[in-house]
Amino acid sequence: MEVKRPEWTSHFSFIAATVGSAVGLGNIWRFPYIMGKNGGAVFLLTYLLLIAFICIIPLCCELTMGKIYKKDAINTFSAINPKYKWFGWLCIFTVTLIPCFYFVVGGWILNYIWVFLTGNLPDNFAVYFSNFSSQIFMPCFLTILFLILTAIFPYRGVNSGIEKANNIMMPAFTLFLFILAVFALTLPGAKDGLLFMFKPDFSQFDKTMILTALGQALFTLSIGMGTILTYGSYMKENTNILKSAYTLIICDTIIAISAGIMIFPIVFSFGVQPSAGATLAFISMPQMFSELPFASVFGLVFFILLFFASITSGISMMETTVAAFMDNLNISRKKSTILTVFIIGLISIPATLSFGVLKDFKLCDKTIFDFLDYTTSNLFLPFNTLIICLIAGWCIPYFWEKAFGKGFIGSIFNILLKFIVPFILICVLVSGI
Ligand code: PFF
């Protein structure tokens, strides 16, 4: 029996869900430290140009494919041509691997929420983080807890689960972020933090920065895994693709920049290196919060913020896999969610343990966690995006008219879709390999 495909009940729900998918650890945790490592303002400028003129193309492609075919990723590509079904499976493979490391960080966030809630703050967060993440039981338990909390929403369905979660969590997230950013601006390091972010020093520019910025942009927009395609398949007939895509990009960018405005003044006020790296959120930031008046309150707000960001993205990753399993294995939504939880749970345990007992177990010289992060973000993501552009640009007649409209902008974007974006993605891939 054919079940009617669900639809977002309003345009706001559609935007909240896609922004919820896009805004995640990539914005709050990854973006500031990558920017810190790549020279601040010049990186920001490169990133903005790439996101506005390059990433908009595959983003529109996924949304349009979702809108036209109204199917999960696998059936969409096999509807375009049965020969492309394997590519749909590759998207599902990629989007199932990402939560296997992403949810490990989700587990850490739950732990830090508990720490700031109880007010039992350690003296030294560097020692604390290393002790905690290398344990066996607690990190695994929290990764699985985060996985189950996330799964509740796809389990309940598009309207009563996913839509409600995003409609509540995304506005709350934005409010918390602005409160922290405004607070950060009152600190003594605010001026240096803002100068670091907004005053470009062009001597820092190099070509690897372009590639890093592009990888980050694809990751943050959740492109190349069928997620946006799946969310697009629930959109209403009269939704304008180009407008929605730019709304998504603008919201995602404002949030990433606000995350920087929240983090860099704090970093400069406490004399931490802005390039401190991935540990910025779990060592430097909590350490700094613990030295402020009302430490527990600020720390708690920061980690609840990270929690909302990561769970709304996690929901979108899981929904992509759940929708694909439902439609291709002919099982109910509930069974499909349980199967997805089982697969992610199985792979995320070794990824969690790669900070402790499995830290010497290496794949291509990387721990399991780093291997999953590296292969999905630097290889599968640009590769999948390249194939999406090639299929959209060369295999679906008049696709560009449906995606970008017939006017002047449409024709320019068509050239970008057919030639320029694939060329850039090939460069990214080659450098990634
Ligand atoms: N865009 C999310 C972030 O910036 O954290 C990550 C993400 C979400 C990746 C959804 C993949 C995905 F399917």
What is the structure about, briefly put?
With 433 residues, the protein is mainly α.
Describe the protein's architecture and organization.
The protein has 433 residues and is mostly helical. The chain has one domain: Hydantoin permease (Orthogonal Bundle). The protein has 18 helices and no strands. Bound molecules: 4-fluoro-L-phenylalanine (PFF). Residues 21-22, 24-27, 95, 98, 219-220, 222, 225, 227, 313, 316-317 line the site of 4-fluoro-L-phenylalanine. Residues 21-22, 24-27, 95, 98, 219-220, 222, 225, 227, 313, 316-317 line the site of 4-fluoro-L-phenylalanine (PFF).
Question: Which descriptors apply to this entry?
Answer:
433 residues, mainly alpha, Hydantoin permease, globular, binds 4-fluoro-L-phenylalanine
User: Helical proportion?
Assistant: over 70%
Number of domains: 1
Q: Tell me the strand percentage band.
A: under 5%
Q: Report the structural category.
A: mainly alpha
Q: Outline the low-pLDDT stretches.
A: none
**Assembly classification:** single chain
Which small molecules are bound?
A: 4-fluoro-L-phenylalanine
Q: Count of DSSP E strands?
A: 0
Can you give the mean pLDDT?
92
